[in-house]
Amino acid sequence: SVLLGTNVTRVRGAVVGRGYRVELADGRTIEADTVVLAIPAHASAAILESLSPDLSAALRTIPFVSTATISLAFPWMAFPTLPQGYGYLSPRAEGGPLVACTWRLVFGCPG
To answer: Distance between CA 101 and CA 46 in Å, rounded?
Structure first.
């Protein structure tokens, strides 16, 4: 089964045989053959510390930055000339408000 939106506090090796014991924030412990963590590396590091200290240490070295996705819609006539390219990167040292920006043009929307 797949558990979505479930807070995990720790993943340990199974007591007997292969697999994992997954400790949940609500106090339950479940047995699993496979565990997929869809969270940032630093959060995974804390959960996996008792299972693999080496893996946990490696995960802590992965830098983390926040991102946002914003969708805007404009009538096609708002741009007499279409933007060239598909985005840009700007070094953090430049001090600008963004380090990356991408866009996608979708046609077929009347003005």
So the answer is: 31
